[in-house]
Amino acid sequence: MTDNRILLLGFDAVEGRMVIARNNPDDARHVVVLVPGVSADVHSMGTLTRRAEDLFRKLAAHHEDDTISVITWMDYVAPRSAREARDAKYAAAGAPRLATMLAQMPVTAEVYGRYRAAARTTVIAHGYGGLVAGLAAKEHGLRTDALVLLGCPGSGVRSANELGLDGRVYATPSDRDGDGTPLDVHGVRPDDPAFGAKVLRPGPLSNQGDPLVRYVPELRPIVLGRN
C-alpha cells in the first residue's frame, strides 16, 4: 500500500502486528525507526503514524523531502497494561523481528535503493519498546547508528556496553516521558549515570501527549548524524 508517501511494510492480521513507513526507507539517507511501548496495537496506529508524520515534518527540509524516512514499527504484541509490562515475554517475542528488519534494511537499500548505499539509521524506542530494542541488541545484534531509549525504565541490561552497539546510546527520564512500564523490573534505568548513555535534555512540556515533541531539538542532530 502506497500513496507515494506511506508504505505498508508488514502486516499480520492474526496478531495485529504492523509496520508502516513514511517514505521509502530504501531511497532515504536517514531512517528513523519508532518502537512503541505499552498499549500499542492496530487501534492506536492512527495516533502512532500521526506522531511519525509530525516527527518527519520537524526533521525534514520540506514536506516532500524523501531523503528522510520514518518507520512506525509495531511488529510485536505489546503489553496492554503496566502490570503486563512487568513481563519480558512480549519484548522477547518481538526482539528477533526488530533485529531482522534492521539487518535487512541496508541490504535492500544497496540493491534497490536510489543511492545504492545504506542509510543512517536511528532507533527511537519508547517505554517498554526500549526493552524490545534492548533485547534485540543483546541477544540478536541490532544494526543501528544510534539508539534512543525514550522514557524507558529498563532495557534488559545493566549498562549501555552490554547492548553491543557500534552506535551511540541516548536516554531520557522514564518517570517523565514513560508509558507506565514499572521501574526496577527490566534492568538499570537508562538515564542513570551508571548506565552510560548520553542523557538528552527535554524542552518545554507538550500538550500534544507526544513524548517525542520536547526532544526534537536534541533528536534532529542525532538522526542527521551531526551529533
From TrEMBL:
Q: Which residues form the DUF1023 domain?
A: 16-173
Matching entries from Gene3D superfamilies are given as: alpha/beta hydrolase
Alphabetical list of InterPro entries matching this protein:
AB_hydrolase_fold (IPR029058), DUF1023 (IPR010427)
Question: Short name of one Pfam family for this protein?
Answer: Abhydrolase_8
Tell me the protein's name.
DUF1023 domain-containing protein
